[in-house]
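User: Show me an example of a complex going from sequences to structure tokens.

Assistant: Sure. Here are the input components:
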Amino acid sequence: MNNVVRYSSPAIVLHWLLALLIFAAFPLGLYMVDLPLSPDKLKLYSYHKWIGVTVLMLVAIRLSWRLTHTPPPLPASIPAWQRRASAIVHGLLYLLMIAIPLSGWLMSSAKGFPTVWFGVLPLPDLVDKNRELGDLLAGVHKALNFTLLALVILHVGAALKHHFIERQPFLQRMGWGKKERT
Amino acid sequence: MTHNMTRWILLAVLAAPAAHAMEYHTVLPAQSTISFEFRQMGVPVKGGFKRFATQMAFDPAKPEAARAQVEIDLASIDAGSPEADAESAGRLWFNRSAYPKATFVSSQVRILGKNRYEMRGMLTVKGRSREIVVPVRYTPGKKTASFDGDFILKRLDFGIGEGMWADVSTVANEVQVKFRIAATGK
């Protein structure tokens, strides 16, 4: 009965921390781009960039944790094609969590605005100022984000389906609800 | 005999600087630049002005008599991004339709050391005039000399960025201005 297996605590903390940051940065990004230039806009851009850099650093930690720790096995009832799909989606989510902040950082450099984490730690400009490249990277950043949105919907949808429809204790895997013994 | 010789050498040495004396007065716009850097949210942003007219006269033998006059076409600004270029024209920034140009007129030159000077003069931006002191380094060349310097301009002294933009925690008050004026003469 109580065969719930959880991810390790660091994995759970990193998962939700990143979820929180991404759920903050995404709508912030959508909102700020169309604002007329104002001090508030400059502030929001900075906050967005600071969150992005934080995400990139946390993903680096999370990925190294994931690569050195085996996640709990999926319930036996999950069919093979879903296991494969799950592995692909998780792989893509990791890829996007790296590619999105990176594309934002590059775009910022290309547009001539270096990234200074929390206004204190300057990040190097990986590309020189170049308007065409900046516009191109803006498009890439946006496309990657909407891909992420689609995958997150799929990811959340699948977890909710396993949990509520198939009545598998799925959300507990990520620390949701009571901690049950293995 | 030896005495005479010494006199001739002395005369030649004294005359030498005069023979090379040259007054620089023709500015080469293509080799001259005015750029600036400011911080917004702690992020350094670079910009500059592409068009400015400079009149100057500088005689290395009489540096204290040097004078310079610079007129900057504010429409030629690069404020870091197209969005900022457009914004800078507005009433809160340069109010360019009323004040299309910024000017500097020198009044006095002080000698600081070898090829280093301090130029005092009146800077007028957005209808506000203030005396500023600018360090100038003179680099002689074969035909062209360059005059370089940089100084900190406090934008709020000239009302550059009023209203919501007066908040210096977003856009810093200090703007680092750098210039290089290249000139030839005869």
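The lines above are the inputs; the final block is the predicted structure for all two components together. Strands of chain A lie at 116-117, 121-122.
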